[in-house]
Design goal:
Strand order of the largest sheet of chain B: 6-7-8-3-9-10
CATH architecture of chain B: 3-Layer(aba) Sandwich
Radius of gyration of chain A: 20 Å
Number of helices of chain A: 3
Order of helices and strands of chain A: HEEEEEEEEEEEEEEEEEEEEHH
Strand order of the largest sheet of chain A: 2-1-5-7-9-12-14-16-18-20
Largest sheet of chain A: 10 strands, mixed
Number of domains of chain B: 1
Distance between the termini of chain B: 32 Å
Strand content of chain A: over 45%
Number of strands of chain A: 20
CATH topology of chain B: Rossmann fold
Largest interface: A-B, 22 and 25 residues
CATH superfamily of chain B: P-loop containing nucleotide triphosphate hydrolases
Shape of chain A: globular
Structural class of chain A: mainly beta
Number of domains of chain A: 1
Helix content of chain A: 10-25%
Number of strands of chain B: 10
Oligomer: heterodimer
Distance between the termini of chain A: 32 Å
Shape of chain B: globular
Largest sheet of chain B: 6 strands, mixed
Number of helices of chain B: 10
Chain lengths: 307, 239
């Protein structure tokens, strides 16, 4: 699979990989399939009725990884894909997805990915999703990822999602439905600058007995950017739910946090936490007494917070 | 050598200003100097004036003859002043290793970081990657704060009540850490304390009360009075 230097850089930002090894992958470049590899346990099939792919992981697949990065290097691309993941019972896999946009042109580049996860009984999934934008053109970089998660009995999904740089506008919607004994953990990290806007919207239904979810968002809003965090956790059975939004606000930025928990069962145990504030003065002073300038101290605090 | 010349500091209050430090002049060149005195007497303010966190309302501060009165916190830190907070600061996401590395100002290996942690009685392996957040106890944070100071290795270090908020077991360890620091060759250690065992290590004791130096001299001259109630009774009358 051939990629130019810009495309390789985007690939590295999204997957952390210089190139692919033995694992399965599917690379979508500028709205078209660019490369694919399947393995004995992981099949990838192009959808016939709409753009996108089905990723089918056989039951009992252990210690395998599949990467499905989307790379956009042309300006004026408006891309919409539906990716469905079928994770077989008792498997234990890592899935890496995300979109990198390099827009040097003056037209908008947009990617809207709709990912649906069907996590089988007692399966474990680590899902890493990263969004990244670069390029000096005036064209906006827009990413609107939707993630729909269904976890069967005893299944587990851990989602790490990050958007650290360069995306002008994003609306990130995530829904989840959990069956008996299922677990969901979401760690979200967002950093916005300039005039960027990021809306993140979680809705989790804790339907099964003894299921549980932790939805944790850490974000930093700088310059004139705006962020909105919406999180709804519904406890519909004996379950544990926890949602947390922790934001650092700087310069002229603004942040709205709307955590909502609904208990529809007397054994539903739900907690929400939300904190928005500037960097504590004593944190800056402490690092300055170690010899850092105020700016260096600020960078260390922000980098640590989003680590 | 550290020198304060006619240093005063007024803090802003709702009703105007309040004098916290009143015309203090002192030269410090000893290895280990303890500051003691009643709460609210101005000890911590003095430490913050030396570290650059507060700027004097009037007077001058010199380090090795250089006027540092108007220097920033960062510049004073670079000149060799360290300040261990009374209430160590917590950081979400920043690890013990990160902080000790930042304190040292150079790249440290895991074993370097572990050595500093071992010095303060922490089982290094358990702590290197821990976040310096609310999951650490007051005693653990205190010891990490001291490990950071050791990693800095500066010529002047001000410890603000290192014993505050820690349990007896940690306190015994703390004493041995200071005894060790004293034995090692290095710069001056200035320490704010109410503890006899810490005062007992000092070469010199300065009693601060009401923003002024109430008593100042070698340990042998000052400590007996503090213990028998001489100076203490004077201080008690002011509280």
């Amino acid at each position: 699979m051939e990629l130019n230097l810009t495309q390789q850089n985007l690939l590295k930002e999204i997957t952390g990989l210089e190139s692919f090894s033995l694992d399965a992958f599917n690379v979508r470049l500028n709205g078209k399939l660019h490369g694919r590899k399947t393995t004995d346990n992981i099949d990838i099939i192009t959808k016939k009725d709409k753009p996108g792919i089905d990723i089918i992981i056989k039951p009992g697949t252990i210690n395998e990884r599949v990467d499905i990065p989307v790379l956009i290097t042309d300006t004026g691309i408006d891309d919409l894909v539906y990716n469905d993941f079928y994770i077989g019972e008792n498997s234990d896999v890592v899935i890496v997805a995300g979109c990198g946009i390099h827009n040097c042109g003056d037209k908008q580049a947009e990617h809207d990915g709709i990912h649906t996860f069907h996590v089988g009984k007692n399966a474990r999934v680590k899902y890493i999703e990263k969004h990244y934008g670069e390029g000096d053109g005036k064209g906006e970089k827009i990413l609107n990822p939707t993630t729909n998660i269904e976890i069967s009995e005893g299944g587990y999904l851990e989602m790490e999602t990050a958007q650290i740089k360069g995306v002008d506008s994003t609306y990130r919607k995530t829904t989840a439905i959990l069956a008996d004994g299922a677990k969901l953990i979401i760690h979200e990290k967002i950093m916005t600058h300039g005039h960027q806007a990021a809306i993140t919207d979680f809705a989790v239904d804790l339907n099964g007995e003894n299921c549980g979810a932790h939805v944790i968002s850490r974000s930093v809003a700088t310059e004139y950017s705006h962020q909105k965090y919406i999180s709804k956790v519904n406890g519909n059975n004996k379950c544990n739910g926890h949602t947390e939004c922790d934001a650092i606000i700087m310069d002229k930025a603004s942040v709205v946090a709307i955590p909502e928990i609904s208990a529809n069962d007397t054994d539903a145990n739900l907690i929400h936490e939300a904190a928005i504030g500037k960097i504590a003065g004593e944190q800056l002073i402490k690092l300055m007494t170690l010899g850092l300038t105020e700016k260096e101290a600020e960078e260390q605090i922000v980098n640590g917070f989003l680590k | 050598m550290l020198e304060l010349k006619n240093v005063s500091f007024d803090a802003k209050t709702d009703s105007g200003t309040k004098e916290i430090i009143n015309n203090i002049s002192v030269k410090i060149d000893e290895r280990f100097v303890a500051f003691t005195g009643p709460n609210g007497g101005g000890k911590s303010t003095l430490a913050k004036l030396i570290a650059g966190i507060y700027i004097p309302t009037s007077g001058k501060i010199y380090l090795d003859g250089e006027d540092i009165t108007d220097m920033s916190i960062t510049d004073r830190a670079k000149k060799g002043i360290s300040y261990a907070f009374q209430q160590p600061v917590r950081f979400k996401g920043i690890t013990v290793k990160d902080l000790i590395t930042l304190a040292s100002g150079k790249t440290l290996s895991i074993s370097d970081v572990c050595n500093y942690l071992s010095e303060v009685g922490l089982c290094a392996r358990e702590y290197v990657d821990r976040e310096v957040n609310a999951s650490l106890s007051g005693g653990e944070l205190k010891r990490i704060e001291i490990a950071m100071i050791m990693a800095r290795g500066t010529k002047l270090t001000f410890f603000d009540e290192p014993e505050a908020g820690i349990d007896l077991w940690s306190f015994n360890n703390l004493i041995s850490v200071f005894e060790k620091m004293y034995r090692k060759k290095g710069g001056s250690i200035l320490i704010i304390s109410h503890q006899e065992r810490i005062l007992n290590i000092a070469d010199r004791i300065i009693v601060i009360s009401g923003g002024k130096i109430e008593a100042d001299g070698p340990k042998a001259d000052i400590l007996p009075g503090l213990l028998t109630g001489g100076v203490c009774s004077v201080l008690a009358g002011k509280m």
